[in-house]
Design brief:
It comes from Medicago truncatula. The chain is mainly α. The protein is built from two helices and no strands.
Length: 61
């Protein structure tokens, strides 16, 4: 077996496990909670990014 084949098989196995885990999390209802938390985190990151751009603009103007 070549290195490429081994890497391909490992990637396929990880993908299969990730899909199974995603399915399990959705069945347990955790997915909705995580999605809401990620939305808040993303909004916070956007605000920090916008504030940073204003600060950088004032500093180098």
């Amino acid at each position: 077996m070549s290195i490429t084949e081994a890497e391909y098989m490992a990637a396929a196995e990880v993908t299969k496990d990730a899909l199974w885990l995603t399915s399990l999390v959705r069945e347990l209802g955790v997915w909705q909670v995580l999605s809401r938390k990620n939305t808040h985190v993303c909004q916070d990151v956007i605000v920090m990014h916008e504030q940073g751009r204003i600060h950088i603009g004032a500093m180098f103007s």
